[in-house]
Amino acid sequence: MLQMSIKKVIGKRGYTFILTGENLHQVIMEAQKLSFQDVYKCGKCESDHLYLWAYTTKQDKYEYIKIVCAECKASITFGKSKKDKDTYYLRKADNGDLDWQEFSNENRNDD
């Protein structure tokens, strides 16, 4: 069994992910599922007070993971690959920038 650790930086925090596989190929394939870049600052207010947040909607049981700004509450949602539900990426706007969304009561995740 092989292991590999990958560090991702979100704001001021570093997150370490430990990946395992039977061989090098499997470990690298698992690493590719974390196909998102480090995020150092909020795309709206440029604060580095960011944190990861996960939740499941009550009604439809959809699972979400977001990066949320502790200052302005803006967030960016992780997308999932349709082919492999364990592959995550950060959503981007049409111009290629990260798709930060401003906080509003309508975007609350109470459903």
| Radius of gyration over all CA atoms, rounded | 15 Å
Category by helix and strand content: mainly beta
Q: Count the beta strands.
A: 6
Large-scale geometry = globular
Low-confidence stretches: none
Q: Give the number of domains.
A: 1
> Strand order, biggest sheet?
3-4-5-6
Mean of residue pLDDT values: 90
Strand content: 35-45%
Order of helices and strands: EEHEEEE
Cα(first) to Cα(last) distance is 41 Å
Largest sheet: 4 strands, antiparallel
The number of helical elements comes to 1
Protein model, in words:
- By secondary structure, the chain is mainly beta.
- The chain has one domain.
- 7% of the residues lie in helices and 37% in strands.
- It contains one helix and six strands; from the N terminus they run ββαββββ.
- The chain has one helix at residues 24-31; strands at residues 2-10, 13-21, 50-56, 63-69, 75-80, 88-90.
- It is globular.
- The termini are far apart.
- 10% of the residues are buried.
Search tags:
single chain, 111 residues, mainly beta, 4-stranded antiparallel sheet, two-stranded antiparallel sheet, 1 helix, globular
How is this fold's topology laid out?
Elements: E1 2-10, E2 13-21, H1 24-31, E3 50-56, E4 63-69, E5 75-80, E6 88-90
Antiparallel strand pairs: 1-2, 3-4, 4-5, 5-6
Q: Would you summarize the structure shown here?
A:
This protein is mainly beta. Helices cover 7% and strands 37% of the residues.
